[in-house]
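Lab notebook, page 48
Experiment: co-folding of the full assembly
Goal: obtain a model of how the components sit together before planning crosslinking
Operator: M.T.
Materials (sequences as entered):
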Amino acid sequence: MSETKKYTFKDFKSDQEVRWCPGCGDTAILNSIQKAMAEMNIAKEDFAIISGIGCSSRFPYYMDTYGFHGIHGRAGVIASGVKTANPKLSVWQITGDGDALAIGGNHFIHEIRRNIDLNVVLFNNEIYGLTKGQYSPTSEYGLKTKTSPFGTIEKPFNPGELVIGAGGTFFARGIDNNVRENQALFMEVEKHKGISIVEILQNCVIFNDGVFGYITDKKEKLDRQLFVEHGKPMIYGKEKDKGLVLEKGKLKIVKIGEDGITKDDILIHDANELSPILHYQLASLKAPEFPVVLGIIRSVELTTYDEAVHAQIEAIKAQSKIKCMDDLLHSGATWEVE
Amino acid sequence: MSKKKAIIEKDHVVIKFSGDSGDGMQLTGTQFSETSALMGNTVSTFPDYPAEIRAPKGTVGGVSGFQLHIGHEEVNTPGDFADILVAMNPAALKANLRWIKDGGIIIVDKDSFTKRNLDKAGWDKNPLEGEYLIHYKVIAAPITSLTQVACKDLDLKPNIVARSKNMFTLGMVYWLFSRELDFTKEFIETKFAKKPLIVEANKLVLSAGYNYALNLQLTRSYRVVRANISKGTYRNISGNTATAWGLLAAAEKSGLQMFLGSYPITPATEVLQEIANRKDLGAISFQAEDEIAGIATSIGAAFAGKFAATSTSGPGLALKNEAIGLAVITELPLVIVNVQRGGPSTGLPTKTEQSDLLQALYGRNGESPAVVIAASTPSNCFRYAYNSGKIALENMTPVILLTDGFLANGSRPWKIPKMSELPEIKHHIIEEEEDDDYQAYRRIGDSMIRKWAIPGTKGYEHRIGGLEKMEITGNVSYVPENHEVMTYQRKQKIEDIKKQIPAQTIDGKSEGDLLVVGWGGTYGHLVTAVHELREEGTDVSFTHFNYIFPLPENTEEVLSGFKKIIICEINDGQFLKYMRSSFPQFNYSQYNKIQGLPFSIVELKETIKNNL
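Observation: model returned without errors.
Model output:
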């Protein structure tokens, strides 16, 4: 990796005008990534930002790094190619709920399965924005859109369930406007070795405005969000008096001070637990019955694909008699014609 | 062993091994052809097998064949009709009877001609009885039972023993051609190194077959005199292996690491397998989750500075076309190998066809020019894969290399080239501080080629992608005039490649009544037909295309010397359409075959004569 210098977030801004709609959550995410990257101690030329198609996929054009704006659904595979080709790069895949979970759904589960060391930021606005308002694979059941004028009749994906179900080693969730929290989150994403997927709940001001309003409501959000931290009890609420416990294998909300519950009864979050069961349950919690879980839900380390590819090549190179093309051409059965 | 053989000298002989798809006919054929090549004959082979791995046993649909043609002069095709047919069961005989020459030899496993097998193959009565096969010399040997006898002292189950009966047949055919058994014995020892009993069984059975033929003096035997071939070191190579090796050679020559993103598909899978096996040469193979992922990972790798390729067959090319457009607009080097098979849709996966030409030329959205090159023999797949890599890297463009099922699976002896003698391959990766005013789409000199700045290189951070680019800067641009400028720049870049490819040559006179035109995998059949006709006194010329888009600069001149042009293809006239639109002034006629089979020399000669 090249020598690094001190950056500010401005070093990561390209000269291109940001063309997202005024008030779009994407801009806040862009800011938090630029701020985080400036702090990562990675040379600017070692970042490669890869996207697919959709509003969020314009992202690379606004970054003064290497960038590749791909085709619909293929961000994950283009990024996989870049990272496998050069594991020294910090490769970021910027994608949306349509790009990653509909047209690119196959690639999404396979990049997770392979555990390629990619940093994936999934902008989830539960709608198709660039095509002007059709439902997406994460749209709430019954949502009325231009292609579901009578309400959708499809059950949505929960990205966290999908990631953990596919064997993901890292899943976190954030909200677009929490720039400071997201900046810290992206630092952790970069540190995690293996595929890291961050779902950012992102408000589309034009086609799905307020979709996360219930969760982000300024007055009520402390009762509706649970920000988990590894090693800390899962406590939330305006009075910090609510928490999660496991009862008969299911998560349940309890109130500290009621029914003899004390702080010590609350589950401690273990993001590093290899078993995905509790992580899956946390990712699944839905409002209004439960708070929506934010922060790093799962972070475990397993061998990465990109590392294994190159390790295998080095191992075989060391033991094979074939060192160059001329050796290969003359390997096996050959004969001389005099 | 003093028995004398009645030996017949032949210029060339065609042998077809056929049996159930589990009978080991591909291995038997490969062994015979490699031994023949080692003993100095020229060889051309063609395996022909069903799409199903184990199609219903004993049925005509499940017959697997391996045809080979050996000669003492150059053989360019696996031959139309067999001099010798090996049929391991009644179905194999049924499927192949129409492909044997009158008076040819048929070797059958008599033990397999049971009522049940005859029924399954659709024989009303046993063809070995009566006068049904009177025009042939039939050798009905009890192969299954003699195989069991040979292995009676080995502690092996009968079903395991039965699997080595192909070696009995191979032994018999070796005797017919006075071949040595050593090469195959060594092969058996290597292949089954961990199973000494199997080695023993196969070697015993091979010798048993040979001795059976020797003792019974089955028939006259043949000798194909050593061929007069140019000096050098030779090996057998199949089209798919040659393609993979050509790509690897281009990677080595360019100094770049090879990256192949691919998804298994018949008949292209061996390209992926070969490269997956070449970690010792540093090659990265990425077996993707689908065809699109295969090419998209390669595009990512190309962006990251690798020599990237993807391999597929027709249906896979259809899936990759959007991504090829991405490589066109991002102007990245990429080789797309398309091993053509019968279509449309799943079509005939194991059969050959040339029907992806128009897809390769025009199968994408937008004005999306990509180079199209076609290999024409199993062994020259190496050269054309190498040149595809050279053109892609030197011109920053995707190149589609067309081969086909016939070339991919066929094999030919090949004089091994020296890496030092292959042409240099340059690339356009720029080093740090080489260019203090880098612009992603600035062209190099007078060319339309852009520089290749790869992630990790300080100072050249830039963004590329599928949206139209502003000239020079590469920024996203919707300026109407700019789109036209960029469209013409992409077009010009490909047209400039004409200057890098060899001129089109004519086999025969450069003027005359009739020019036979072919492209790609039909070369062997066309050249044989034309040469035979010329020897028989028919004046006809022949030109064969490997560079399809762009066409060689002198193409028009080549065509202009003839009153009539006949374009022969294994499709419904795709190259004809292309030539008609490129050079509408000429008088074309066509000959097409769409049976999943290569041409036969006989039909070509007849067609050419009829067009004179």
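Interpretation: The longest helix of chain B spans residues 196-216.
Next step: discuss with group before ordering constructs.
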